[in-house]
Amino acid sequence: MAFESLSEKLQNTFKKLRGKGKVSEKDLKAAMREVKLALLEADVNFKVVKDFVRDVSERAGGAEVMESLTPAQQVIKIVNEELIKLMGGEAEKLNIASKPPTIIMMAGLQGAGKTTTAAKLGGLLKKQGKRPLLCACDVYRPAAVKQLQVVGGQLELPVYAEEGVTDAVGIAKRGLEHAVQHSNDVFIIDTAGRLHIDEQLMDELKEIVREVSPTEILLVVDAMTGQDAVNVADKFNSELEISGVVLTKLDGDTRGGAALSVRAVTQKPIKFCGMGEKLTDLEQFYPDRMASRILG
Ligand code: GDP
After folding, report:
1. I need a surface site. Which of 105, 154, 228, 266 has the fewest CB within 10 A?
2. Collapsing DSSP states into helix, strand and coil, what is residue 133?
3. Complex-level ipTM
């Protein structure tokens, strides 16, 4: 379950704090030390943890908290608010183009869940009354085109593909023309991933961006890889100017380090999260719901 181990540790800390009638400065310090440790063990970025604990301590150490009738409750409330802030505050909706189609480019490393997420997102938008077209531009992994066709088919979404063609940029351009001709108001491009970020991958993605000007560039990262996911997001963002992040496999991520760091490190919102292998397991990312999940 997402955030399970972090949640357990924080809840223990706050249980101890609530057990005390009055919270002394020493109690607060001890609690903050535990929070810091719990976040580090959850693989949250070191600087993010430092800033977070500093901000919470500053707010919680004030007289109006410490001298209130329910200091422990106040501290928990502050932690909750700061967790929400850390994950981006308000939920950030998908950008929709004023003139259709809305063009969404999915990027990410191989195995992150790009192809699955492209289809899931198409399914989600279809449910909202849109008419998405998926476009298979992951031309280097032979099975990827087929995979997109299969998952697209399961959701009854049309897929634009060109068998045997390896010019991803051309496929994206022609796919877009196809979308316009067929009144598809959302065009979702599944791009190639690599095991590592390399220049060729970035060049191809940049070329697609130049040619089709996406409304959204969504970077798909695997939450279970923790700080690696954050580093990948940081690198992609500096090369490509992503517009948002999709965190996949959050269902299997008991720690939560990526979810809690990626926004602060990249300054880009987490827009969706993958919560399972089923094609309906994609949700809008709500920072407040995630914070509630953590604090129980
Ligand atoms: P790609 O190489 O980035 O296109 O990755 P795929 O879309 O092929 O996904 C790789 C694996 O991750 C597949 O087995 C997916 O079913 C799985 N996957 C993707 N998203 C999620 C998710 O949110 N939760 C879980 N549990 N598995 C996921």
Report:
1. 154
2. strand
3. 0.99
